[in-house]
Amino acid sequence: MVKEKVPVAKSQESLFERVSAMSPEMEAELGEGGVKASIEGFSRNDEAAVVGAALVPGTTRGHLVRQPAILEEMIVRAPDQVESYLKTREQAIQQLRAVALKSTKPTDWTLFKDRAGTVIAVMRDSGAVVIRKWLRISIFNHRPVVGGVAEPRLSTERVVDKDGNTTVVNIAEMWADGICEVTGEAVEDVAVALRDDDGFVGRGHRQDLKASCRTSLDTKVVRILSGLRKVSGEELAHAGVDLAKAYLGSGYGTSKERAARGVSSEGIESERKMMRHVLLSIVGGDQTAARDLLREITVYTPKGSNTPRSWESVDRMTQTFQFENAWKALAKHELAEGADLEALKRAAVAGGNVEREPGSDG
């Protein structure tokens, strides 16, 4: 069978040209000369001196088709330049890696600590979005495809606990391929399977489980292709990331203990301030009415329960998704009809006068 290859614009452009196409922000981060200086001395027209193996997305069973490695040609044509090329290329990649890490926020990472006290950081989905842009990671061929749309496959499993109680567990599975333009590395058939009994955070809806599965899959591909599956706390701190504001995982006590220490997303305080200001503005400063409105827009049903719950105080809301859901519900609420929520948010950030928050007294 002949493997079909799909041409990609500029798929053969040199590393030098790719670096030249960096954004002004990236070049500013790299400093004067940046990565360009690290590859000076190579001929801009000698592609063999600046390009590694070329990879082009193909259509053979939806996977990748690998082109002949230019590095092999270089070994034959200019063997005396191979070592210098490899060192320079590695230096350029390490510089880019450092800048990519520096561009992340503390809450893009979850910290884990082993018994020896070694701290390891694992990239979260928000961090993957940042790293993916810097390293030009493309993710494609998401599958399965249903009705022309790629979406996770859902299945169920009956689980019987030690007391004989049976629970139906939902499982979402998905696969994808990926490629990193900077390193030339590619991965195929990366898989993720999520279960709603395995610490899944959401509203308990199957749609949430599917969305989380897709996000987890993309994050996994980025971790693999970026070489940042596990980053030492020392390296992250050296990049200027404030570890004190990162999420904490195992090794930092139980989940309740971490919550008691106030571990929450960076920017949560800003969200709280905006929510307080907006709710009070909508109800004319009435504290009781603001609290009632907060309850109405934060109603949710915990997994495994039929009893709806809601938040009575913004101080007790510690996750970004909680505020995202609340803002969406508020936009549809009859009391917010005609209100310019974005303008109210801006006013809060600018220092809106909010004396007390809904639920601050209990």
Description:
- The chain is an alpha+beta fold and 362 residues long.
- The protein folds into three domains: 15-102, no CATH class; 106-260, Enolase-like, domain 1; 268-349, no CATH class.
- Helices cover 38% and strands 18% of the residues.
- The protein contains 13 helices and twelve strands.
- The strands form four sheets. A four-stranded mixed beta sheet has the order 11-4-3-12.
What labels describe this entry?
single chain, 362 residues, alpha+beta, Enolase-like, domain 1, 4-stranded mixed sheet, 4-stranded antiparallel sheet, 13 helices, 12 strands, globular, disordered N terminus
Note poorly predicted spans: 1-68, 262-266, 352-362
Strand content bin: 15-25%
- Rounded mean pLDDT is 74
- CA-based shape: globular
CATH class of the largest domain: Alpha Beta
